[in-house]
Amino acid sequence: MPTPLATLEDRSQFQARHIGADAVDETLMCAAIGVASRQALMDAVVPAGIRRAAAMQLPAPVGEAEGLAELRAIAAKNRVLKSFIGQGYSDTHTPGVILRNILENPAWYTAYTPYQAEISQGRMEAILNFQTLVCDLTGMAIANGSMLDEAPRRPRR
Predict the structure, then answer these.
(1) Which of 23, 27, 58, 74 is the most buried (most CB within 10 A)?
(2) How far apart are CA 114 and CA 92, in angstroms?
(3) Cα–Cα distance between 54 and 136 in angstroms, integer?
(4) What pLDDT is recorded for position 74?
(5) pLDDT averaged per 10 residues in sequence order, the chain, 157 residues
(6) How confident is the model at residue 122, as a pLDDT?
(7) 143 CB-contact burial (10 Å; exposed 0-12 / middle 13-18 / buried 19+)
(8) CA–CA separation, 147 and 132 (whole Å)
(9) What pLDDT is recorded for position 2?
(10) How far is residue 103's CA from residue 109's CA, in Å, rounded to a whole number?
(11) How many alpha carbons lie under 13 Å from residue 91 in its C-beta half-sphere?
C-alpha cells in the first residue's frame, strides 16, 4: 500500500519557502538598514494611526495540498456570467488632440516584436504619461501603471 501524502509532506518546508526570511536573515537585513529589529522598523515607518492594536486572528497553517484544496473549494463557488464591458458605447467623441497624439501617433508602436527596445521605450513613455495624467487628474502624489495590461502580440515574420 502506498504511503499517504500527509506522512511524506514536511509542512515546515512549505512555510520556509513561502513565508519570508528566517531569524538569521532578518537580523542581517535589520543590521544592513540600521534598525534594531523588525518591530523597530515598523515603529519608524508605519504611522500609529493606521497600525493594528491587536494581532490578527489567523487560522492555523495548513500544508500545500490542504491549501490548494481549500482554494479549489473557494474557486468552485464562482459563477460564470456574461461580461458586457466595452459593448454598447455610442455617441462618443474622441477629441482630435487625443486621436492625433496618442491613438494615431506611430511613436507609440513599431512594426517590431515587443521584445525590442523601440517598442519597450514607447510603452514606458506611454505608462509614464498615463501615471502623470492620473496624478494631475486626481491630485495624488503618485500613480501606478502596469506593463502587463495588453494583449499578447505575435512577432512579424
Answers:
(1) 27
(2) 31
(3) 38
(4) 96
(5) 70 67 89 93 90 89 85 93 67 76 68 58 81 90 72 50
(6) 75
(7) middle
(8) 15
(9) 74
(10) 10
(11) 0
d(CA 147, CA 109): 14
C-alpha cell at 148: 502587463
Could you say which DSSP state residue 59 is in?
A: P
Classify the phi-psi angles of 93: left when phi > 0, otherwise alpha if psi is within -120 to 50, otherwise beta.
beta
Contact status, residue 118 vs residue 110, Cβ threshold 8 Å: yes
C-alpha cell at 78: 464562482
Q: Residue 9 is which amino acid?
A: E
How many residues are present in the chain? 157
Chain centroid offset of residue 118 CA: 25
In single-letter form, the type of residue at position 137 comes to L
For residues 6 and 50, give the distance between their C-alpha atoms in angstroms, rounded to a whole number. 40
Cβ–Cβ under 8 Å, residues 16 and 22 = yes
The H or E element that residue 90 is part of is none
**64, 16 contact by CB (below 8 A):** no
